[in-house]
Amino acid sequence: MITIIAAIAENNALGKDNTLLWHLPDDFKRFKKVTSGHHVIMGRKTFESIGKKALPKRTNIIITRKKSYDASCIVLADSLKKALRIAQTDANPYILGGGMIYKEAMQYADKLDITLVHHSFDADTFFPEIDLTIWKEVNREFHPKDQKHDYDFSFITYLRRGIK
């Protein structure tokens, strides 16, 4: 089960200038919980945006065409297909982005694990449209904004139609 995991705004915004547009502590906790123990696949810019450090308790696969890319505790792949081959020993690898990786990964994913931030943002990186003829929403959990969260948000799970 290949899962794309992403936090996106109502206008599909992901980020601007290689940074996130919001801070949602409960989303970070959930992200850590569901991805721990798994392979995580991300592009080089996404890896650099999280501090160029491997996410602990996960096998970090970074997609880059830079042959001499220097970072410790990671596995390099020069394409998404190669990254998925490396991760095939994991029953549920996660794809973490960025925008171009998400766009390419939509054809391979079985599941979308989306945090929808109920707000629109000015951005330069966007998540691809979720085609509801391909994806079926199977779960939604709403969280209102509070002292720690500036925006309402929902955890939404989609499965590719035909998958149970």
Question: What do these coordinates show?
Answer:
The chain has 164 residues and is an alpha/beta fold. It has one domain (3-160): Dihydrofolate Reductase, subunit A (3-Layer(aba) Sandwich), CATH 3.40.430.10. The protein is built from four helices and ten strands, in the order ββαβαββαβαββββ. The chain starts with a strand and ends with a strand. The mean pLDDT is 94. The strands form two sheets. Strands 5-4-3-6-1-7-10-9 form an eight-stranded mixed β-sheet, sandwiched between helices.
Q: Give the overall shape.
A: globular
From the alpha carbons, calculate the radius of gyration and give it in angstroms. Answer: 15 Å
**How many H/I helical runs?**
4
Distance from N terminus to C terminus (CA atoms, Å) equals: 11 Å
In the CATH hierarchy, what is the class?
A: Alpha Beta
What's the architecture, going by CATH? Answer: 3-Layer(aba) Sandwich
Helix content estimate: 10-25%
> Order of strands side by side in the largest beta sheet?
5-4-3-6-1-7-10-9
Largest sheet: 8 strands, mixed
What is the chain-wise order of helices and strands? EEHEHEEHEHEEEE
The CATH superfamily bears the name: Dihydrofolate Reductase, subunit A
Strand-pairing-aware structural class: alpha/beta
* Structural domain tally: 1
Report the β-strand fraction as a percent range. 25-35%
**CATH topology (fold) name:** Dihydrofolate Reductase, subunit A
Keywords for this structure?
164 residues, Dihydrofolate Reductase, subunit A, 8-stranded mixed beta sheet, two-stranded antiparallel ribbon, 4 helices
